[in-house]
């Protein structure tokens, strides 16, 4: 391995191993295999000096993110023109640099302890990727086990704990010592047993109606019309024929806020509590969810986590000339972005206290946790995934959000413009779902719960544990180091 040129075969092998890891993420059923390609990477990093570790990890990460996000240019180009496809290599390259930098830094600082430092370093990497205005959590290791019973461990330590388990299993495979492999097998077995023995979901006794309008995103981009509101009203009335329910409409379903007279009258006539996505003009454009009941607005939640360079453009006013040039090059209109929300609080709608998450926000565990800590007894995700088109991107988005139900042990009600519209039990089980890209109303049952999981109570304790583990590995005895894993000669 040490004599193979890094300009050829070895880097290609790293790239292909990364592609292999991408095929273990949802909606793939191959999650159990995720530690295998990651073990190859960890062993290679531990056996080579930092510079080579950087290059091979960059190739590996280009493979995983290049394949995992392959839907991106095809999804955006029909809406914004072919020029926007240029964002795809920039995003993949940026993510690959983060992976490569983490590997090289760990190799440099940890020396012969690198192999067992890598799992904890990856926990910190995945945590860091979710921070700040440019947070992006696609490819976090814990999601690879989302289709396995091991994902149930998320109620103990969030998706970070599940990701640590993926990485520890990979390190054990790379280590290859029998006692280490047996220890890893025991750990996975205990995690599986935990997942298979969770208590049953609480009885679902309350009724909701999730409405999927299937409105063409290109038509919405050209201008909002009253026809959109009419479509949702028609679908809702048909769905309510079976009886009253909490109604959930998707992100930006209404063309105007329910404070406008026309929307207010239409919603009041339904005589049911609603959660609906609608735009708000207040100091700029805001992407909002409204709670409407009893003929009036009961609360509003503005989107806190905006999509970088989709809803949020850093220093937009100061760099106006540069942005205008980029927009012209990409064939885009002069985008301005949205105003972010500043607070999170459950919305009271009828007898329900709902923690609202708007689209992209469902991929951030901290937001769901914050809603539950503040009293949310059910989670509601409103989304507009129509811009994904027929790609796998919408399904990836849905499966990531599904883990929020497990972390908090809350029912999750999800309404999407063209899908995914579904009800998810606290176990992560999908109890009902509409097909994508059709208009419809889905009647579902749910329950409000007040359980406080260890993850909700203690938050990202796995990240703190990882910091301590790295300090211990860097400063303490190296009993876990496998002989022969030092730098290549």
- Count the domains: 2
Question: Which series of helices and strands comes N to C?
Answer: HHHHHHHHEHHEHEEEHEEHEHEEEEHH
Over the alpha carbons, how many angstroms does the gyration radius reach? 23 Å
| Largest pleated sheet | 6 strands, mixed
| Low-pLDDT residue spans | none
* Strand portion: 5-15%
Percent of residues in helices comes to 40-55%
Terminus-to-terminus distance: 11 Å
| Number of helical stretches of at least 4 residues | 16
Spatial ordering of strands, largest sheet: 5-4-3-2-1-12
Class by alpha and beta content: alpha/beta
- Mean pLDDT, all residues: 92
GO biological process, one term: lipoprotein biosynthetic process
Family: Belongs to the CN hydrolase family. Apolipoprotein N-acyltransferase subfamily.
Transmembrane segments: 53-73, 79-101, 113-131, 151-173, 180-197
Pathway: Protein modification; lipoprotein biosynthesis (N-acyl transfer)
Keywords:
Nitrilase/N-carbamoyl-D-aminoacid amidohydrolase; 2 domains; 489 residues; single chain; six-stranded mixed sheet; alpha/beta; 16 helices
Structure explained in plain terms:
The protein is α/β, with parallel strands linked by helices and 489 residues long. The chain has 2 domains: 9-198 and 457-475, no CATH class; 206-305 and 340-448, Nitrilase/N-carbamoyl-D-aminoacid amidohydrolase, CATH 3.60.110.10. 46% of the residues lie in helices and 14% in strands. The protein contains 16 helices and 12 strands. The chain has helices at residues 9-22, 35-47, 50-68, 71-80, 87-110, 114-129, 154-175, 178-196, 217-222, 226-239, 261-270, 320-330, 365-373, 393-408, 454-458, 461-475, and strands spanning 206-212, 246-248, 274-281, 285-293, 296-302, 347-349, 352-358, 378-383, 412-416, 422-424, 430-433, 440-446. A 6-stranded mixed sheet has the order 5-4-3-2-1-12. β3 and β4 (285-293) form a beta hairpin. The N and C termini lie close together (11 Å). The relative contact order is 0.13. The mean pLDDT is 92. This is Apolipoprotein N-acyltransferase. It is found in: Cell membrane. Its EC number is 2.3.1.269. Residues 211-451 form the CN hydrolase domain. One of its GO terms (molecular function) is N-acyltransferase activity.
């Amino acid at each position: 391995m040490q004599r193979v040129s890094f300009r050829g075969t070895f880097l290609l092998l790293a790239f292909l191993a990364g592609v292999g890891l991408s095929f273990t993420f949802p909606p793939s059923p191959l999650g159990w295999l995720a530690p295998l390609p990651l073990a190859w990477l960890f062993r290679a990093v531990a056996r080579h000096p930092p510079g080579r570790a950087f290059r091979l990890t960059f190739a590996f990460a280009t493979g995983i993110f290049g394949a995992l996000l392959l839907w991106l240019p095809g999804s955006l180009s029909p809406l914004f023109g072919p020029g926007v496809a240029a964002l795809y290599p920039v995003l993949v390259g940026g993510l690959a640099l983060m992976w490569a930098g983490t590997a090289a830094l760990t190799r440099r600082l940890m020396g012969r302890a690198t192999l067992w430092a890598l799992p904890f370093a990856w926990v910190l990497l995945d945590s860091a990727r979710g921070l700040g205005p440019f947070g992006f959590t696609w490819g976090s290791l814990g999601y690879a086990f989302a289709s396995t019973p091991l994902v149930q461990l998320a109620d103990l330590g969030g998706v970070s704990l599940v990701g640590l388990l993926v990485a520890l299993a990979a390190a054990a495979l790379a280590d290859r010592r029998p006692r280490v492999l047996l220890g890893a097998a025991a750990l996975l077995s205990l995690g599986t047993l935990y997942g298979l023995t969770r208590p049953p979901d609480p009885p679902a006794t309350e009724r909701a109606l999730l409405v999927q309008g299937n409105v063409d995103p290109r038509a919405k981009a050209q201008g909002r019309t009253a026809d959109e509101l009419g479509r949702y009203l028609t679908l809702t009335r048909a769905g309510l024929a079976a009886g009253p329910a909490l109604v959930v409409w998707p992100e930006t379903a209404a063309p105007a806020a329910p404070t406008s007279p026309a929307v207010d009258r239409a919603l009041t006539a339904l005589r049911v509590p609603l959660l609906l996505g609608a735009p708000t003009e207040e100091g700029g454009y805001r992407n909002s969810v409204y709670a409407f009941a009893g003929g009036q607005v009961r609360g509003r939640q503005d989107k806190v986590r905006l999509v970088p360079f989709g809803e949020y453009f850093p220093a937009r006013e100061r760099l106006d000339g540069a942005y205008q040039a980029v927009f012209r090059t990409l064939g885009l209109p002069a985008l301005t972005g949205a105003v972010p929300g500043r607070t999170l609080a459950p919305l009271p709608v009828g007898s329900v206290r709902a923690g609202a998450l708007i689209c992209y926000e469902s991929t951030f565990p901290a937001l769901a946790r914050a809603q539950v800590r503040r009293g949310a007894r059910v989670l509601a995700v409103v989304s507009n995934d129509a811009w994904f088109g027929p790609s796998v991107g919408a399904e990836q988005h849905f499966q990531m959000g599904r883990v929020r139900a497990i972390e908090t042990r809350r029912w999750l009600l999800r309404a999407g413009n063209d899908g995914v519209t579904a009800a998810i039990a606290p176990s992560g089980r999908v109890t009902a779902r509409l097909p994508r890209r059709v208009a419809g109303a889905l009647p579902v049952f749910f329950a409000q719960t007040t359980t406080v999981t260890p993850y909700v109570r203690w938050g990202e304790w796995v990240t703190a544990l990882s910091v301590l583990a790295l300090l211990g590995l860097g400063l303490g005895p190296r009993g876990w180091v496998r002989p022969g894993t030092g730098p290549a000669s």
